[in-house]
Specification:
7-stranded mixed beta sheet; single chain; about 240 residues; globular
Length: about 240
């Protein structure tokens, strides 16, 4: 399915109905409940205004693809279901680099309490998160700097399709160790969980081997890294000062 501005501008109500018709052949598909919920609750006129505003704004550029909510619901559901978040008990989640907010919105649908963080520099992301009524914190992740969310402890930290690890240069072992240690010591309950999905371009064999050595479940082909049973000082060698 194409995901450019043309698809983003299509009528959302009709698109959801069409996808529900397609999914009717698979009644156990978890997307059915969420899409039905959207069909019943979304402000479709408000979304059309949001679409028009951002499609007319040259700053939106390639990000216009995120206006195709049906396509991106499919994409984000793969992340939610890959880690069983659609059937787990309610958890406090911090979604670092929340982007368009759909991953967080789906998690919230399943009863999770989600704090979204992002840089606030992409107006489309800001507007989409506001459209979904998500709890958002403007925050930039920097290498070798404490996160300092100051929003209490979380059961789970997620970072899906990370971009913060690409600047000022691609992160290596040292940057990731600091990030993980700070999460474990200062942001997560004991035991907590960390799930990261990064672009394969930035997921080197060295990182994969290192994460496995730290006890992570790693799926190389998907760029998934999952740490369970995270306790303070789990990554003691790189603990922030």
């Amino acid at each position: 399915m194409a995901t450019g501005a043309t698809d983003g501008a299509r009528d959302l109500h009709a698109a959801i109905e069409q996808r529900l018709e397609e999914l009717a052949r698979r009644p156990s598909d978890p997307r059915i409940a969420f899409l039905s919920h959207l069909l019943e609750t979304l402000d479709f006129e408000g979304f059309r205004r949001l679409q028009a505003r951002h499609l007319e704004d040259p700053k939106t550029g390639r990000e216009a693809k995120f206006l195709d909510l049906v396509y991106w619901t499919d994409a984000k559901y793969k992340l939610v279901t890959a880690f069983g978040l659609h059937r787990s008990e309610p958890r406090r989640i911090v979604d670092i680099g929340a982007g368009n907010g759909l991953f967080a919105a789906i998690c919230r649908f399943y009863g999770h309490e989600v704090l979204c963080t992002d840089t606030g520099t992409m107006p489309l992301y800001v507007d989409l998160c506001a459209f979904f009524g998500l709890d958002c914190l403007v925050h930039r992740v920097e290498p070798f700097a404490p996160l300092g969310f100051r929003r209490g402890r979380f059961d789970l930290a997620t970072a899906m399709m990370t971009t913060f690890n690409r600047r000022p240069q691609p992160w290596g072992v040292a940057e990731w160790d600091y990030f993980l240690a700070d999460l474990a010591d200062n942001e997560l309950v004991e035991p907590g969980e960390i799930i990261v999905k990064m672009g394969l371009r930035y997921f080197s064999p060295e990182l994969s081997q290192h994460f496995r050595g730290l006890g992570a479940e790693v799926q190389d082909k998907q760029g998934y890294v999952r740490f369970t049973g995270v306790a303070p000082q789990r990554f003691a060698a790189a603990r922030p000062a």
